[in-house]
Amino acid sequence: MTSPEATALVERARALTPLLAEHAAEAERLRKPSDAVIDALRDARIFDLMLPRAYGGLELDLDTFLEVGLALSEGDASMGWVACFYIEHVWIFSQFPESFQREIFAARRGVLAPAALSPSGTAAREGDGYRLTGTWPWGTGVMHAEWVMLGGLVEREDGSPAPDLRFFAMPVSEVSVEDTWHVDGMCATGSHDIRADGVFVPADRCTSLIDLSNARGPGAKLHEAPLYRTPMIPILAQAACMPAVGQARAAVRIFRERMQERTLLYTQSKQAEKPAAQVRLARVDLELRDVERAIRAQVAEVMAVREAASLEDRARWAAGFASIVDRSKRIVQTVCDASGAHAHFADSPLQRALRDVNMLSCHAVFDLDARLETYGRIQLGIETPPAMI
Predict the structure, then answer these.
(1) Bridge-partner residues for 302, per DSSP?
(2) pLDDT tens digits along 2-27
(3) For the domain 230-379, what is the CATH superfamily, name and number?
(4) Is the pLDDT confidence value at 273 over 80?
(5) Residue 40 and residue 8: Cα distance in Å, rounded?
(6) What CATH class has 115-209?
(7) What letter does residue 187 receive in the DSSP assignment?
(8) Which residue among 72, 283, 292, 376 is buried most deeply as judged by most CB within 10 Å?
């Protein structure tokens, strides 16, 4: 990350951290991202991070994505989550056929769109396209969306008996949003269900997730930057992982600051004077530093290997990101345990961090047992379906 554009974008992201923190409580109450924050991120060109230069984008790589994502997520997990996925979904759009890329990027830069991967509806072949019907959950980003991407299973064109999982893109005006996001964490993401009732999608508005997972999407041939020859799942996992690390960073900072002010009940002593508190602070600080080293090392390895990654490489990365989220969750929990009843007030940033990180850790890509099992099976030479790697 040495280019002036990358440095400037990271600086703009860090400057926006307080704005995200300022709007976090209200966004949680409204169950949607703040309009003011979305506008500020757009003005700062955050959503152009992975947009190809051919369409006026910044075309920056995963190391810049990491620093931007951590900075935003330190302000608010929900908004960090939405922003990171908006960025990653622009990368997905860059993996659609060229004719659609020219269409979707013609009048705008970074397009805001959810990508509901679960094939919860049907995609029936019809003429030169597909007819989509169904309801898709987990619509992160739908509250400010311009387009949506929905997952659907179709027959493989190469005659393979296994179906192809594809993303289908359509304007948000062609779908409806069902108010289903009543949750105890990540409330402000507004990740409601998306309903499609017989929406026709032309053939050039779909792309194969199998190809994207194997770094063989159309973008790998259309765009020169190595970013577009990177397997999809590590990029997705990085996007989802950064809010947990960012909130662990915020929790340790809040803990350190509050220790110096907090007077313990029934004493006149500051918490900072207590050896036990000092030990806890030192422990979470060291663990946080180790977690940040781990995610940076993993991102660097993904960038070094990319399309040459073996199945074992990809399984190790998936397990690594899941482990980083688990460790970040434990850091936040330790801080809350050491912060007394104050951390249990609904308006406490620590309470929100605890609920948000617990919630985001439930994402399918962070099922630590499943990711470790897959990695272990591959190391032992046992045949393993390449799911979520």
Answers:
(1) none
(2) 799 999 999 999 999 999 999 999 99
(3) Butyryl-CoA Dehydrogenase, subunit A, domain 3 (1.20.140.10)
(4) no
(5) 15
(6) mainly beta
(7) G
(8) 72
